[in-house]
Amino acid sequence: MKYGYISIVVIISLLFGIYGTAFLLSQGDLLENISEYKDSIHAAYSLGRLDLITALLAIITVVLALFGFIGYDRVRLKSEETAQKAVEKYLEENLERICTKWMFDNAPEIISRWLNQIENIEKIKESVADDISMHVDPNNE
Q1: How far apart are CA 103 and CA 110, in angstroms?
Q2: 128 neighbors 135 (Cβ within 8 angstroms)
Q3: Distance between CA atoms of 23 and 47, rounded to whole angstroms?
Q4: Is pLDDT at 140 greater than 60 in this prediction?
Q5: What is the pTM of this model?
Q6: DSSP H helix total and E strand total for the chain
Q7: Distance of CA 4 to the CA centre of its chain
Q8: Where do the H-state alpha helices sit in the chain?
Q9: CA 59, CA 35: separation in Å to the nearest integer?
Q10: Would you say 56 and 70 are in contact if contact means Cβ atoms under 8 Å apart?
């Protein structure tokens, strides 16, 4: 698929080149009239070919814009895929270390909070104590 887009562009360029060459060869008197003008824009306007040039430039612009959108989308998808693989590889290698560090940093505070609530159980309302005990004991339903 990598060379598919390139071959499409080459084929379109060849077709435009063949069409342009055939057109110029069939319009000998047009070439004589064009030689009178020093400016190509003035010549195209005088001969009524400026509309053709404008249309061709518009078509080329639209085609290039479409290729730009397609290219942007392909780059975005490829970068997301690469980032996903990199994150998976990083987590595969470092997950145990990350979890251990988080536990060392956060577990003492969480345990002390629970112990503080258990020590002050008389001061807590009965419904709050029941809620706490439900979360502490996973077998409690």
Answers
A1: 10
A2: no
A3: 14
A4: no
A5: 0.40
A6: 5, 0
A7: 21
A8: 2-26, 28-34, 40-47, 50-119, 126-136
A9: 27
A10: no
Average pLDDT, the chain: 77
Find the radius of gyration of the CA atoms of the chain. 37
Lowest mean pLDDT among 112-116, 122-126, 136-140: 136-140
DSSP 94-127: HHHHHHHHHHHHHHHHHHHHHHHHHHTGGGS-HH
| Residue type (1 letter), 139 | N
CA dihedral for 7, 10, 16, 20, sign (positive or negative): negative
The SS3 call for residue 21 is: helix
Structure-derived torsion over alpha carbons of residues 66, 70, 75, 78, reported in degrees to the nearest 10: 180
How far is residue 137 from each of residues 121, 130, 132, measured CA to CA in Å? 16, 11, 9
